[in-house]
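Let us practice reading a record.
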Amino acid sequence: MTALFALATSLLWGLADFGGGLLTRRLPALTVVVASQAIAAVVLGAIVIATGGWSEAGPQLWFAAAAGLVGPVAMLSFYKALALGPMGVVSPLGTLGVAVPVGIGLILGERPGLLQYAGIAVAVAGVVLAGGPQWRGAPVQRQTIALTLVAAFGFGTVMVLIAEASTTITGLFLALFVQRLTNVLAGGAALYASVRRGGRALPEGAGWGALWPAVPALAFVGLADVAANGTYSLAAQNGPVTVAAVLASLYPVVTALAARGVLSERLRGVQAAGAGLALVGTVLLASG
C-alpha cells in the first residue's frame, strides 16, 4: 500500500504543479497560491464538519500548522528561483528535498533492503535527469541556487511534518484543513504586503474578471495538492518513510509528461532517459 499511495502522491503533485505552472502564465504566482489554497480550505472545512473531524483535535495539529507556514515559503522560493533560471538547473535541484524525509527515516532506524537501496539511487537519479538538467550555458546566480535549496528543504520538511500530523482518516482531514488554513493566512499576509509595496494581485489592467474564469483550474490545483498531501501521509504511515518519500518525489516526471501530452512539449533525450530510470527505480522499490 505504501508504494500505491506514494505513486498516487507523485501523480497528484505532478498534475498540480503542471496546472499551477499554466495558471502563473496568466496570474501572479502568489495569487495562484492563495486562491487555490483558499478553495481547498473551504472544501476541507466542509469535510471536517461532515465527518466530525474536530474531535481529533490535539497537539499533533501543531505539525500541520508548521507545514502550513513552511509550504508557502518553499513554494514562493521555488517560483522565484524558476523566474531567475535557468529552469534546467532549478527543476532537478528542487527534488533534493527528498533527502529530508529519507534522512529522518534512516535516523529513526528504518533500514530498506538491498533492492530498495538500489531503487532509491536509481529513482533519485531518474528524477534529477527527468528535470532536464542544463549541463552548459550561462553561470547560475548564487541567489538562484540559494532559493532552490530553501525550496527543496521546505518541500522535504512539509513531507515530514504532514506525516506526523495525524494517525486516523478523520484526523488527516482536520490536519489538512489546518495546514491549508495556515497556508491561506501566511500567503494572504504576504500578498497584502506585496500589494502595499506596489505589487499586483491581478494582471495589470484586469480586475476580478481575470480571476473568475480561472476558478475551476485553481480548484483543481488546490484540491490535487491537498489530496497529494493526504496520500503521502497514508504512504508514510503504512510503510517505510524512505520508500514513500522517494516514490512521492517522482512528480517532476508526471509534470514533464503532462507538458508533453497537453502542450506538445518535446522531451529532451536526458529527460526521456530520466523518466525511464525513475520507472526502473519504482519497480525496485516496490519489489524490495
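A brief commentary: The chain has twelve helices and no strands.
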